[in-house]
Amino acid sequence: MLDQFIHFLTVEKGLSENTIEAYRHDLRRFLDHLRERGIQDLLKVQKVNLRAFLLGLKQQGLSARTVARNRASLRTFFRFLLLEGILETNPAEELESPRVVKTLPEILSFREVEQLLDQPNVETPLGIRDRAMIEMLYATGMRVSELIKIPLNQIYLEAGYALIYGKGSKERVVPLGSEALKWVALYLQTVRNHLLKGKESPLLFIGRFRKGLSRQRFWKSLKGYGQKAGIKKRMTPHLLRHSFASHLLERGADLRSVQMMLGHVDISTTQIYTHVTGERLKKVHQKYHPRG
Questions:
Q1: Whose CA is closest to 255, among 280, 283, 284, 276?
Q2: Which of 87, 153, 228, 262 could cysteine-pair with 81, CB 3.0–4.6 Å?
Q3: What CATH number is given for 110-288 in this structure?
Q4: What DSSP designation does 70 have?
Q5: Could you tell me the sign of the dihedral formed by the alpha carbons of 253, 182, 263, 2, in that order?
Q6: Of the listed 24, 33, 238, 280, which one is catalytic?
Q7: Is 273 annotated as catalytic?
Q8: Domain 2-83 sits in which CATH superfamily?
Q9: What is the pLDDT of residues 245-254, one digit of tens each?
Q10: Structure pTM?
Q11: Which of 148, 134, 132 is nearest to 224 (CA)?
């Protein structure tokens, strides 16, 4: 049943690899939970079993967000079983969701971004490539999965923008900005063919073995640059995405434009960044206002 469900998500829903892997992970954990309790038949699963599973996740110390994601996985899985005629009722339909506390995302300061960008050794081919990648990540706010997979033919240097296909293959156009354009152009002129060594690739960014980079490889490099820069925050590609959005809003960008550039379907997802900028303004006010 799990294999059929994963096939359904892949072929009919067209979900991303990351989303499908999250479903697979959550549901395998749930099925293991059932087996440990002697339940081998999905027809025998009741709401009380689902509640016990989610309660167990909470007792293990997992975050409310993770528990909520597992609940969503269960609801989608059992809805699929209902649609396929395998079940007559859905025990997960009215399963309560734990309250998720929204945490404000951490961001880099303007100075920290500059310090990070200064770290790659641009006297080397890989340093130029890494500088171009970090510049592009900060200039566009794209996800790391979008960055490492973006094809060369979706970069329009003369027009100054990138065409990005995000979650659900939704298309969006994002300006690159002068610094990112400069470094991507330099990378294309001096580095990309050197890394390809006569081979061909549709990808913009090339790794050591004439293939694309993995998310893990890029994250490891970024983490190393963050440490060299003396940045104490947990360095991830998503930290630059958060910083991109927050810095735009701080400088007067409208929320709808930032939503479009991030590729958010729902503007409420983007609104978290207004809270970030609001918190920063409060700190500035408290620090500098004579009666703060």
A1: 276
A2: 87
A3: 1.10.443.10
A4: H
A5: negative
A6: 238
A7: yes
A8: Tyrosine recombinase, N-terminal domain (1.10.150.130)
A9: 999 988 888 8
A10: 0.66
A11: 134
